[in-house]
Design brief:
By secondary structure, the protein is an alpha/beta fold. It folds into two domains: 2-101 and 275-297, NAD(P)-binding Rossmann-like Domain (Rossmann fold, 3-Layer(aba) Sandwich), CATH 3.40.50; 103-267, NAD(P)-binding Rossmann-like Domain (Rossmann fold, 3-Layer(aba) Sandwich). The protein is built from twelve helices and twelve strands. The longest helix has 21 residues, at 277-297. The relative contact order is 0.15. Bound molecules: 3-phosphoglyceric acid (3PG). 3-phosphoglyceric acid binds next to loops.
Length: 306
């Protein structure tokens, strides 16, 4: 089978080599499309692909329509909001992710962002410490649990909200369960967001929630920019000069935020949460193995469009 590895943001070389080795050993042909300048390049490369490995690359209805032989798409990572699931399902194309494989990298970055903000973006101004502060984790999945565990080890107290988990599961993960989003935001000195971008979560974090946060609080977003209501964020930061926002997913209004709020806001130049060699190897090789397994045995364990 012809497997297209399409990564606008390339994997580390070791991951690319590992992906090639796994797929070639199973008799598949690998085509690599990295750092492509335009979406049309992905559309063109998709033409004769039977399988695809992607990251945040946008597999739109147009890409799917241009790939008549496509049977499987594996998102090497967690969030699959970049894949048009309806268009894939209509064609009977299996879509998978590789849950948990890049979580540690994202969790480490969330902690780093907290400390970066606590230390006034590494300027000489007096900062604060995260030990002794309260961390709220919004969604206690693979990343949220790791952020909670690391924060606890650094002396923070950790609470978590996750409507899909029972209290016992949150307690087993080392956090105190919280039952309303208002309560979570009201009691968190640091709030780390780990929800996916879904119709129900898009723009769900705005003025009401952010302005509930305690004095001096920091909102940390390593999830998706779409979950933030950017106008609401701007209004909350305007009214509350003590609040801060740090994100790995640059807001559309970042220039305006920077101009107005200076060191109280920060966005990484390019989403880098999962950009470690380890995460690339874990997620990339898992994706390759899932494709090999799917063609060999029909295994659909990680399918997300069942
Ligand atoms: C994910 O959903 O797995 C993360 O956001 C990482 O995305 P990336 O592979 O584009 O870095």
């Amino acid at each position: 089978m012809k497997v297209l590895v399409a990564t606008q943001k390339p994997f580390a070389a070791a991951a690319v080599n590992g992906i090639k080795d796994i797929l070639s050993a199973a008799g598949h042909d690998v085509v690599l499309l990295e750092k492509y300048p335009a979406q049309e390049d992905l559309v063109a490369a998709a033409a004769d692909s039977e399988a695809m490995i992607i990251r945040s690359d946008k597999v739109t209805a147009e890409v799917i329509a241009a790939a008549p032989k496509l049977k499987i798409i594996v998102r090497a990572g967690a969030g699959y909001d970049n894949v048009d699931l309806a268009a894939a399902s209509e064609r009977g194309i299996v879509v998978m992710n590789t849950p948990g494989q890049n979580s540690n990298a994202v969790a480490e970055l969330a902690i780093a962002l907290m400390i970066f903000m606590a230390r006034t973006q590494f300027t000489p101004a007096t900062g604060s410490e995260i030990a002794g502060k309260r961390l709220g984790v919004q969604a206690f999945g693979a990343v949220g649990r790791l952020v909670g565990a690391k924060a606890k080890a650094l002396g923070m107290s950790v609470s978590a909200l996750d409507p899909f988990l029972k209290d016992e599961q949150i307690v087993a993960g080392g956090a105190e369960p919280v039952h309303s989003i208002e309560e979570l935001y009201s009691n968190s000195d640091y709030l780390s967001i780990h929800i996916p971008a879904l119709p129900s979560t898009i723009k769900s974090i705005g003025y009401d929630l952010i302005s509930r946060m305690p004095k001096g609080a920091t909102l940390v977003n390593t999830a998706r920019k779409e979950v933030i209501d950017e106008e609401g964020l701007e209004k909350a930061l305007e009214e509350r000069p003590d609040l801060k926002y740090i994100t790995d997913v640059m807001p559309d209004n970042y220039a305006a935020l920077q101009e107005k709020f200076g060191l109280r806001v920060f966005a990484t130049p390019k989403k880098m949460g999962a950009q470690t060699a380890e995460a690339n190897i874990n997620a990339g090789l898992a994706a390759a193995r899932q494709i090999v397994d799917y063609f060999a045995t029909g295994n659909t364990r990680f399918q997300v469009n069942k």
